[in-house]
Design goal:
InterPro entries: Thiolase, Thiolase-like, Thiolase_C_2. By secondary structure, the chain is an alpha/beta fold. Helix content is about 30%, strand content about 15%.
Length: about 425
């Protein structure tokens, strides 16, 4: 692989330079005293690897590319990183990925709960840093899901497995999208949500993506375009569903004492929450309520803010219904009012609550477990680095508060993170 031009390491290897051994001399980093208050935790570095159509890289190379770029973005020396979190690659994730990157972490996390993985991991990492168990934790993801399908290295799958509780549903042919489609139909039945309102989610996501040069699809679409597309799983046509892309990204969290040495203004982790609710559809009590109803409440309570205080939201959107119901469950509107809330561009870049400002999984990129991309975009927005898609408050001020909420499985899990600028 050619050297990454954004990397601080000019060596041609995709690996990070090797960590010094425990006996090696190096910069000393103070550990917090046991009696100290919990340390504040900031996101100090974010980056994307190459995304979209990436036919000439391995998932490991995308991990390395994203990690190097995030470290460069932070301005910190890589020797400060003593924590590592990764999922989705390798038999012993994150051991294999850490080895590939040349890291020898003393704190690791491989929590895997689908798309919510990264918000949950961010919460775990923030707790570890606050308690003095780690100085800085690197979260990294990379996938060549699209390229692998195109090259015949993998195929799509009908289900995640046929053992355990799933054995009672798999024989009926419930694919992942079918489960989301069933939930959407239930919301339509219970609250009168329309196909046109669901289509508005896709239309707004594409409009947001139009201002993002890194988005995979940027051409505008209409509600009619969404409704007239090929049916995938009733009521979802093709444009109700996320795109398939390659890509990767990384986020670096660090304790407050390292913030003065960073290259960018910090974005603070103010509060996090996580929740799992079910693994089979038969155990899901209400198809119209996602686990974000719990993770969001916990995150807002711990951050000491209300949904009304939030300036923008980054929400997992594998399907249009996910955006709509998560907005309800996070408290941005009442249950059943999500359809009306997403109408008339309210979630666009200039709307009352900008949502998925990069275009989301519906238009920007979706290489698998997309939750980490939500954190990257939220941080870029709070820093004022989003270019033409930059969100502003009334009077032109930068946003101050953002929420990133990831969803895993078929609304099986949720992780929510509230972030604040300055």
């Amino acid at each position: 692989m050619a050297p990454d031009p954004a990397s601080p390491d000019p060596a041609p290897s995709p690996r990070l330079s090797r960590s010094p051994s425990p006996s090696s001399s190096g910069p000393a980093f103070p550990a917090p005293a046991a009696s100290r208050r919990p340390r504040k935790v900031a996101v100090v570095g974010v980056a994307l690897a190459d995304c979209g159509r990436v036919d000439d890289a391995t998932p490991y190379a995308l991990h390395a590319q994203a990690a190097r770029r995030a470290l460069a973005d932070s301005g910190l020396d890589r020797s400060v990183v003593d924590g590592f979190a990764s999922a989705g690659l390798g038999t012993l994730a994150p051991v294999e990925v850490a080895e590939y990157l040349g890291l020898r972490p003393t704190w690791v996390d491989s929590t895997a709960v689908g798309g919510a993985t990264w918000e949950v991991m961010a919460g775990h990492a923030a707790d570890a840093i606050a308690a003095g168990r780690a100085r800085a934790v690197l979260l990294v993801y990379g996938s060549t899901a699209r390229a692998d399908i195109k090259a015949g290295r993998r195929t799509s799958n009908l289900s995640f497995g046929a053992r355990g509780p799933s054995q009672f549903e798999v024989p009926y042919g419930h694919s992942l999208i079918a489960k989301y489609a069933m939930a959407a139909r239930r919301h339509m039945h219970a609250y009168g949500t329309t196909l046109e309102q669901l289509a508005e989610v896709a239309v707004t996501a594409r409009a947001n993506a139009a201002a993002n040069p890194e988005a995979m699809f940027r051409d505008p679409i209409t509600v009619d375009d969404v409704l007239s597309g090929p049916m995938i799983a009733d009521p979802f046509t093709k444009l109700h569903c996320c795109i398939r892309s390659d890509g990767g990204c990384a986020v670096l969290l660090a304790a407050e004492e390292y913030v003065p040495d960073t290259a960018k203004a910090p974005v603070w982790i103010l509060g996090t929450g996580e929740h799992v609710s079910h693994s089979t559809m038969s155990e899901w009590e209400d198809f119209t309520v996602s686990p974000a109803a719990v993770s969001g409440r916990l995150a807002f309570e711990r951050a000491g803010v209300r949904p009304a205080d939030i300036d923008l939201a980054e929400i997992y959107d594998a399907f249009t219904y996910m955006t709509l119901v998560t907005l309800e469950d996070l408290g941005f509107c009442a249950k059943g009012e999500g359809g009306a809330f997403v109408e008339k561009g309210r979630t666009g870049l200039r709307g009352e609550l900008p949502v998925n400002t990069d275009g989301g999984g519906l238009s920007a990129c979706h290489p698998g477990m997309r939750g980490l991309f939500l954190l990257v975009e939220a941080v870029r927005q709070l820093r004022g680095e989003a270019g033409l898609r930059q969100v502003h408050k009334a009077g032109g001020a930068l946003p101050e508060l953002a929420v990133a909420s990831g969803t895993g499985g078929w609304f099986c899990s949720s992780g929510t993170v509230v972030l604040g600028r300055g």
